[in-house]
Write a structure and sequence with these properties.
423 residues, alpha/beta, ten-stranded mixed β-sheet, four-stranded mixed β-sheet, 22 strands, 23% strand, globular, binds guanosine-5'-diphosphate, binds 6-O-phosphoryl inosine monophosphate, binds magnesium ion
Length: 423
């Protein structure tokens, strides 16, 4: 069996949580492979709404194992909160498997995130301030603490050493963290809560998830890998430096789970019928007018993790084609088609004009000099008409499929798991 991958093709928040929840009944295992609690994946079912940050979005279905892979970074306190919340609906403990090789986000990583952003002033990334950049930095610098270290006798010493080195860095930067709050708490209180959460984490299945996954594949079981963030936030191919610190593309599933490229099966590429972005960085099709505001209100475009208003704009097919190439997308999933209900016309960017020349390529540094060229489409009143796609939405989707050279697998027309059409 193969690992199918589901990931975002834009700047995150495409609706990955909902799509994974819908697909989970077809899989034996769902696995997160990168990112950390910067992610906020929303699921709505049976009148409930849950936002998951680290737990895979397959957790609410029966008989599915949920794996937090080695490529993920974990804040034990945030994960503990999530487990407590999700446990109201399901037996999380029996279904959750955590990689011993996943790196830990320390409270001082979060302070460093604050210090780095403050030092960058107007050039700041707009990070979620969850400690993502500093934790991945320590991982690649080979200084990080891993989940497996909880099972060795010297965790406390290692923790104290890494914390002391972080505090020295923060002091050198001249950053005053006395007022910084993490999950509403000042540093000392947060550290205490974090250390208590570390103790609780020891009670979970902390395993070599690379064996768990590969053994499952050998036994004929199916695995769905769930991406976080989106392709345009990838540390190599995204809108650098305004990106996250991990590989969000399909390749990230290989090193984030310990599976070979030949084990990858279908790649589901997810996008909204329009486009959003949180944080700083270029967004060629961003709308600063009342249409942008309408999309924000209609699509409830406020961050699931940070509650920040998301920047909104038209879909950028030029960037989507690039994202399909990078990920080897086999199937398209279009989300939030209902948000465009009632538009007389909608627009889609198909190429850029750079210094008077039209191009379908993404320049090395994508910036304001790339002016989007749009194509207009007739809007639809509602996505579905007598159980079938509205003919205008169908025509739009047909154009997108032709442009991207891939077929549609799913169309979503509402946040609930039932508001979904599968092809
Ligand atoms: P993720 O990070 O990719 O999982 O996406 P988020 O959860 O951050 O943001 C997607 C938002 O859109 C959530 O509030 C979802 O409940 C909601 N959503 C998902 N699919 C649809 C849809 O088809 N229509 C509408 N209106 N909302 C949707
Ligand atoms: P999901 O999985 C949208 C953005 C941040 C910031 C940049 C770097 O819910 O789609 P970081 O905290 O990673 O250092 O922030 O990346 N960002 C996201 N934007 N959705 C996400 O996750 C994001 N995770 C990070 O806003 O611009
Ligand atoms: Mg999100």
């Amino acid at each position: 069996m193969k690992v199918d991958v589901l990931l975002g093709l834009q700047w995150g928040d495409e609706g990955k949580g909902k799509a994974v929840d819908v697909l989970t009944p077809h899989y034996d295992m769902v696995a997160r492979f990168q990112g950390g609690p910067n992610a906020g994946h929303t699921l709505e079912f049976e009148g409930h709404k849950m936002v998951l940050h680290t737990i895979p979005s397959g957790i609410f279905r029966e008989n599915t194992k949920n794996v937090i892979g080695n490529g993920v970074i974990i804040d034990p306190y945030v994960l503990g909160l999530e487990i407590a919340e999700a446990s109201a609906f399901t037996d999380v403990k029996s279904k959750l498997f955590i990689s011993q090789k996943a790196n830990l986000i320390l409270p001082t990583h979060r302070l460093l995130d604050h210090a780095n952003e403050a030092a960058m002033g107007s050039k700041k990334i707009g990070s979620t301030l969850k400690g993502i950049g500093p934790t991945y930095t320590d991982k690649t610098a080979r200084k990080g603490l891993r989940v497996g270290d909880l099972l060795t006798g010297d965790f406390d010493t290692k923790y104290r050493q890494l914390k002391a080195s972080h505090l020295r860095q923060i002091e050198c930067m001249g950053f005053d963290y006395s007022e910084v709050r993490m999950e509403g708490m000042l540093f000392a209180e947060y550290e205490k809560a974090w250390l208590e959460a570390v103790e609780r984490l020891r009670n979970y299945a902390l395993v070599s998830t690379e064996y768990l996954i590969n053994n499952a594949l050998s036994a004929g079981q199916s695995v769905l890998a769930e991406g976080a963030q989106g392709t345009l936030l990838d540390v190599d191919f995204g809108t650098y430096p305004y990106v996250t610190s991990s590989n969000t593309i399909t390749a990230g599933a290989c090193n984030g789970l310990g599976v070979g490229p030949s084990s990858i099966g279908r790649v589901f590429g997810l996008f909204k019928a329009y486009c959003t972005r949180v944080g700083t960085g270029i967004f060629p099709t961003e709308l600063f007018d009342e249409t942008g505001e309408y999309l924000r209100q209609q699509g409830h475009e406020f961050g699931a993790t940070t509650k920040r208003p998301r920047r909104c704009g038209w879909i950028d097919l030029n960037l989507l084609r690039y994202a399909c190439m990078l990920n080897g997308v086999t199937d398209l999933i279009m989300m939030k088609t209902d948000v465009l209900n009632g538009f007389e016309t909608i627009k889609a960017c198909t190429e850029y004009e750079v210094a008077g020349v039209r191009t379908g390529e993404i320049p090395y540094r994508l910036d304001e000099t790339a002016v989007p060229v749009y194509r207009e489409f007739e809007g639809w009143k509602q996505p579905l008409c007598e159980g079938k796609l509205d003919s205008r939405l169908e025509a739009y989707l047909h154009f997108v499929e032709q442009f991207l050279g891939r077929k549609t697998f799913m169309v979503s027309y509402g946040p609930d798991r039932d508001e979904t059409l599968l092809f």
